[in-house]
Amino acid sequence: MRSAGRPSTLAQPLGRPSVGRVAAYLGLFVLGAVVGVAGSLVQSGWFPGGLLLALAGEAGLCLGGARAAGSRGGAVAPAVGWMLAVILLTASRPEGDFVFAAGGGSYLFLLGGMAVAVICATLAPGRQPDGDAVRLGK
Fold first, then answer.
1. For 67-123, how does the pLDDT look when each residue is reduced to its tens digit (9 = 90+)?
2. Are the CB atoms for 74 and 68 separated by under 8 Å?
3. Residues 7, 9, 12: CA angle, nearest 5 degrees
4. What is the 3-state secondary structure (H, E, C) of 2-42?
5. DSSP letter assigned to residue 98
């Protein structure tokens, strides 16, 4: 049973995150960008295995970040870093250089990486009430 003076965790207003949590999210964001850059180079260099390796690396980082942070934000931060890095690498430069060629592997990497990011953010644990009465109906 819930105590009379303490409302449910879900009913409480959100507070500011701690400095450590913000630093962890920033670190996960930077790691996501690094994995995005590394994955974009690996997926084209060694096509079928590199694509799978790049997507598995992103999935591992997103799920590991969610487990380490204990929230969905731990999965979203590296996913945003990955997406930002990959989108910036798709833009061609004025010299005509680009990282991604117009091929099936590049599109599979882009769309598959976005799908992996959404799946990992969905599977990550959300806010759960703590205490003995973990079901809201009790």
1. 888 888 888 999 999 999 988 888 776 776 666 666 777 788 888 888 998 888 888
2. yes
3. 70
4. CCCCCCCHHHCCCCCCCHHHHHHHHHHHHHHHHHHHHHHHH
5. -
Place 3 in a pLDDT band, splitting at 50, 70 and 90.
low
- Selection from 77, 81, 70, 80 nearest residue 34 by Cα: 81
Q: Which structure tokens are listed for 91?
A: 């833009």
3-state secondary structure of 58: helix
Closest CA to 136 of 4, 5, 11: 11
pTM score, whole prediction: 0.75
The more confident residue out of 42 and 137 is 42
